[in-house]
UniProtKB/TrEMBL annotation:
PANTHER family: SLR6007 PROTEIN (PTHR30121:SF6), UNCHARACTERIZED PROTEIN YJGR-RELATED (PTHR30121). InterPro entries: HerA_central, P-loop_NTPase, T4SS_component. Residues 272-371 form the Helicase HerA central domain. This is DUF87 domain-containing protein. It holds the Pfam family DUF87. It comes from Paenibacillus agricola.
Length: 670
């Protein structure tokens, strides 16, 4: 119960209970409370409030109409993360920190570019001066990073890419119960400190801070609470804007769902460290639809694309594009040899054959084949024998790091060499098995008895499709797909994913480093979580991607997939572009910090995202967009059998194949 206090004539303190107070939701302040309050007073710690409560912090008391008094505390934000992000203030809108109210104000003042450039220049000069005398390595690194950021900002302002603003972010918490308000404020400050946003109380100037948000007063926010922001930073502060992506080249992926502006995506944007990307979304969230849109539009701007198709969903699209669709299965003629190597061409013009990396991959694949049945057989003795034997196979074929060693010269029979060269035959898995079978080590011969299943010598044709010379070639196709859906799901499909990815790297990605390429890996978690090949794959693919001008696009369902293995962590850390669709709440909670998701973005992904609506994050920029396809694209991309466009596509592909077959028959008959 609240007690009203007053002083009697003799100085004694008298008290009288107030009437029962209205409920919290009925105690909202009204306009009259600010225009003509019954009381307004800034309190200090240890003072008594109008209700006789001992204050424990700075605040402002405002007499109200529904309640005798309401308490206000103001905070100003200081961002220590060095960047802003879309939806960073969303939790201020929700205000779910306890029993109190939350309001916030954003004070924005345009800043003259010349003044801002002068200020940045002075800061850079000061940092460079301090660097000359600083001995601490960590402090030097921090100062150098700041100099780099300041110079980048200096360039953006000078080119008018961004405008400069002075911005102050003010949060105002209020409530009718002082203890509840204090608890609310403590929770508020703690929550935002976890996001590298420090909320500093306006102690000693709480009344001035409260007056600064009212339109009828002349009070202003003190200068020390203003931050220097750019246009995109200011956009990040508003919940209705969700910031934006600064890319203005590349492909148009869709439109922002709030502002309706087109969203560009450029994997080769100069500000990005590499071209890699992640596409993440639950089943039915439209991952394949998003990826097909991304793939199709990249091919139209002369980027080449290779796809590892886990479910065979790209068949119709490949037929429509008249591009190679390679199906790995016992009944197809398509074969891939994991021993295949090719010339690696570096941007500086150097050329070599990476035999060591190829041998490491083949041995990892063989380990995986054997471990399918009995991992205990892979003793150290067996592993060493397999590793040495694979390298011996390359030596016997006279294939070395010299690019010329890949080719064999052929003559016409008269001693003269033909114009042009042909590739040598690569080693095969059956050759490795023969070496293992003839070993004088019993453990190796036991391993050979299991490994035989994956060779042509064994009795399982469906499991020997990777034993033999490769029969496929993609040449200069703008786009191609390797389908794995006809392979055994438990054993051969994961093996096929690994073998096909390696083949793409050797026979496609490493060629023509001047050509921009994207490699799409559907259901990438089957590589991430593989204990035998996951680490080897991540080490080579993400490291070599930049040098071969190739971007890896890993596609998987759950965010948590990336946290379960070293390969997954490497993928998420080395992918500056992330496209995230509908998610389970438990997944969001586990990786929100890793992906730097704002609370608004996390809430959207769990509660509002639908097919084709995604969060696009590019380094420190982000937006929420609706992926939009043309009518023809939609017909080619949809995977929903209940969609009328799906049936329309089947008819379109059938007619297209009939026309092509008719044309081929006419050519053959002359």
């Amino acid at each position: 119960m609240l007690i009203k206090l007053w002083y009697g004539k003799s100085g004694e303190v008298k008290q009288k209970p107030y009437k029962k107070q209205p409920d919290f939701d009925d105690a909202k302040p009204e306009g009259i409370d600010f225009i003509s309050p019954s009381i307004i007073r800034e309190t200090l710690p240890k003072e008594l409030s109008a209700e006789g409560i001992k204050m424990t912090d700075y605040a402002v008391e405002v007499g109200g109409t529904a309640v005798p008094v309401r308490y206000y505390r103001s905070f100003f934000a200081q961002i220590s993360a060095g960047n802003t992000w879309a939806g960073m203030l969303d939790s201020l809108v929700v205000g779910d920190f306890g029993e109190a109210d939350m309001d916030f104000a954003i004070h924005v003042r345009p800043s003259a570019n010349d003044r801002e450039l002068d200020a940045i220049g002075r800061r850079i000069t000061g940092l460079l001066s301090d660097l000359a005398s600083e001995k601490d390595v960590s402090k030097r690194d921090s100062m150098m990073d700041e100099v780099k950021d300041l110079k980048a900002r200096q360039g953006r302002i000078r080119r008018n890419t961004e405008r400069s603003y002075r911005v102050s972010i003010q949060a105002i918490a209020s409530g009718t119960d002082w203890k509840a308000l204090k608890k609310y404020c403590n929770s508020l400050v703690k929550r935002f400190s976890g996001k590298s946003i420090i909320l500093r109380s306006a102690d000693g100037r709480q009344l001035d801070a409260l007056r600064a948000i009212l339109p009828l007063t002349t009070s202003e926010v003190p200068k020390e609470h203003f931050l220097s922001f750019e246009t995109s930073n200011v956009a990040d502060l508003f919940p209705f804007g969700y910031g934006g992506i600064s890319h203005r080249t590349g492909i148009i992926l869709g439109r922002e769902i709030f502002m309706g502006k087109p969203v560009f995506l450029e994997n080769w944007h100069p500000d990005l460290t590499n071209q890699h990307a992640c596409v993440i979304g639950r089943s039915g969230a439209g991952k394949t639809y998003v990826v097909m849109t991304l793939v199709n539009r990249n091919t139209h701007i002369r980027r080449r694309v290779g796809i590892l198709d886990w479910k065979g969903e790209y068949r119709d699209y490949m037929i429509a594009m008249n591009c190679p669709f390679i199906e790995l299965s016992q009944h197809s003629q398509d074969r891939i040899n994991p021993y295949d190597v090719d010339i690696t061409e570096m941007p500086d013009g150097s050329r070599y054959v990476d035999i060591e990396e190829a041998a490491n991959f083949v041995q990892a694949l063989v380990y995986k084949m054997i471990s399918v049945y009995d991992r205990n057989i892979l003793t150290g003795e067996v592993k060493v024998f397999i590793s040495n034997s694979i390298r011996t196979q390359y030596e016997d074929a006279e294939i070395t790091e010299d690019p010329e060693s890949l080719f064999t010269a052929s003559s016409t029979g008269d001693g003269k060499f033909r114009i042009g060269r042909t590739y040598k035959k690569m080693p095969e898995l059956n050759g490795l098995h023969d070496m293992m079978e003839k070993s004088d080590k019993e453990a190796v011969r036991i391993a050979a008895d299991i490994f035989i299943q994956f060779t042509k010598t064994g009795k399982a044709p469906s499991m020997s499709i990777f034993d033999g010379q490769s029969t496929v070639s993609v040449k200069d196709a703008p786009i191609f797909a390797i389908a794995l859906n006809r392979l055994d799901k438990d054993i051969m499909r994961p093996l096929g994913l690994v073998a096909a990815q390696r083949w793409i790297t050797e026979k496609w990605a490493k060629k023509n480093p001047d050509i921009k390429k994207l490699e799409v890996i559907e259901e990438a978690q089957n590589i991430f979580n593989d204990p035998d090949v996951g680490g080897v794959w991540a080490e080579s693919s993400y490291r070599e991607g930049r040098s071969t001008n190739t971007g890896i696009i890993s596609v998987t369902q759950g965010l948590e997939v990336y946290t379960k293995s070293a390969a997954g962590i490497a993928a998420i850390k080395n992918s500056p572009i992330k496209i995230i669709g509908l998610q389970e709440k438990i997944d969001i909670d586990s990786v929100q910090g890793m992906l730097n998701l704002s609370e608004g973005e996390a809430h959207f992904l769990v509660n509002q995202a639908s097919r084709g609506k995604v969060v696009l994050k590019i380094d420190n920029e982000s937006t929420i967009l609706q992926v939009q396809a043309t009518k023809f694209e939609h017909m080619l991309f949809t995977t929903d059998p209940n969609d009328p466009a799906y049936a329309q596509r089947k008819i379109y592909i059938r007619d297209l194949l009939e026309k092509r077959n008719k044309s081929v028959n006419q050519e053959q008959t002359g």
